[in-house]
Structures are given as structure tokens and as C-alpha cells.
Fold this sequence. Notes:
It contains 14 helices and 13 strands. The protein has 367 residues and is of the alpha/beta class. It has a 7-stranded parallel beta sheet with strand order 3-2-1-4-5-6-7, with helices on both faces. A 6-stranded parallel beta sheet has the order 10-9-8-11-12-13, sandwiched between helices.
Amino acid sequence: MKIGVLTSSRADFGIYLPLLKALKEDDFFQLELIVFGTHLSKFHGYTVQQIFDEGFEPKHLIHQMIITDEPISIATSYAVTAMKFAEFWKNNVFDCVFCLGDRYEMAAAVAAGIPFNVPFAHIHGGETTLGAIDNIYRHSITLASKIHFVATESFVNRVMQLKGLDARCLVTGSLSLDNIKNMQLLDIEAFKSKWGIDLSLPSVLVTIHPETVAFEKNREYVDEVYQALIKITETFQVIITMPNADTLGSVYREMYSKLKLAAPSMVHLIENFGTQSYFTCMKYVALLIGNSSSGIIEAASFGKYVINLGDRQKGRLTSKNALNIAFDSVEILKHTKIFFGKNFFGLNIYYNDKPVHKIIKYLKSQN
């Protein structure tokens, strides 16, 4: 069975990883990785190297990124991606092609495959993020897909609203939680040796991406985040992962550089941790601040509280570890003091036993 996997960023590759390993090891499948997006951007860390480091050889490399982050650039990048993939789907046929999540470049690659009747299998469909244009892209990917591997039962209902009651859905839980269960994480010394960051110090992990619906407010939000983080650095080490290639992501990058100059010993800027190091960092820090899906999906499994900022994840189903507040420096500082170092002992609603096994079994049953 010939399987294609669309991967456009460090984020989706990390989620795919346990599934990719299983597909690679099973002779029933012929696995081909289709790599594009920020994976191939030197500006965003050239994360295709992470794919090689994990022992995979990308079969297809498709260059289509436009580096600037104004709305016209995002729209143009979507168009270029669709054009490149139109030629790709014309010349490549698969029994199943995995697509994941809600990125605009992923949606463009999938949209180009519709006229070719490409058999897409969508992971993480049916979810809602009202503060990001990704919400539209996610639903468009769902509409274009033939199979849907969703994280919870409630997302089945949303997919059926979009696709009809005969939609082919399987509840698997989140693939990324298999990484937590099975991946060997680094210890504090190994992490320090690799990154120069001492996780034995009281630390906060920050992952903030731009809001892409009300994108004009990002400059205002950046000021609030800076005022909060500069105060936090007086007491705690701040570890920042850099934002995605989204509208006005550069204003966050500029602010982080300013923060680093103001508190060089207390601030660490990381372009790309990779899955192992990111989860290691999450394991040892005392608190997460941001608006990333990682805070919604993975953090609960590490027993961490997350201060979830703004509307980017608004509408998304969350465990009880996520505390939703506005981009307000006073509120950020207040909640940091309340929840710093406090452990979360609740359930992760995205956990489901053996998601990879469920997907592999389903694929074989369809052949």
C-alpha cells in the first residue's frame, strides 16, 4: 500500500512521528514523505534536517515558501503551493495521503489534489480555533479528505456536520501523546549539554504564535507580552520557541530579540527544539505560557498548567490545565504567580490508548 505523508513544519512532523515509524517498519506499506513549507526555509531553522535525524529520507521536496509575513505574502504562498502541488499530484499517485491539522500551506497542497481525487486521510480534523484563520483551513482539509482520524468523540460530530453522516471517522486520540509515552527524553544534564539551558532553574516555557483573524492587534499583544515577560525574567528563566510562519510573526520575533538584549542571561530563544527536546523542556519547566496547540494537547500529560493567551485557540476543547486569559500583562503576571510550579493532576482529554495501532489496523482493513 503506497502511503504519502504531507509534512510542512516541525509541528506536524513531531505529531506524525510515531505513525511514521510504524509505517516505515511495516512491509505492507511503501512510505513516501512529501516535504514542503517551513521545513525547507533557512529562516525558520531548515527543519527538514530533523526528518533526516530521525532516520527518514524525504522522497519529495517541494519549495514554495515566501518568507515575508504580510497578508499578501500568505495569500501568494497559498497560491504558489497550490500551483506546485497541481503538478505534483498530476505525476504521483498514492493509495492514501496523510495530511494533518490546519496550516494554510497544508490546505493549499490538499486543495490542489481535489481535481485528481487524491485519497486524503486527515488527522486532527473536527476541532475549532476561532482566533486563527487556520479554523477555515482545517475545515477545508476535512471537506477534501476521505478518511478522518480524530482525537475525541466530539470531533466526530463536527466532521459529520461538514461531511455528512456517512463520513469515515475513527477516534484515535492524539498521535503526539504516543511520543510522550514511548520517546526517551533527555535528562537535565544532557539537555544542558545540547542547548546550554539549565532546566534545574525555575523556568517558564513560552510558545506564542500570532493571532491571524484579528491580526492587526498583534502589535498591541506583543507589547503586553513584553511587559509581562520582562518582569518574569527578574525571577524566572524564560525559554522561548519562535513563532510559526504566520501573518505578522515577525513582530513577535523582534520583541523576543529585544527581550533577549534586556535580560540575556535569563532568556533563551530557540528556533527549533525538535520533538525530543521540546517535550524534555515541557517536562522540567514549572509553567507554560502561550497560545500553541501543544499547551492544549500535550501539556496535561506532563502535569503542567498552561496560561493560554487570547483567541487563537478559542473554541478548542481543552483539559482543565488550560487557563484562558487575554493578552494583558497584569493578568499574565497574576496567573504566573498563582500557577508557577503547581502540578496538574487531571485527565488529558486527548489521550486514547494505542492511536498508531488503530490507524494501521484501519488502513489494512480498507485495502
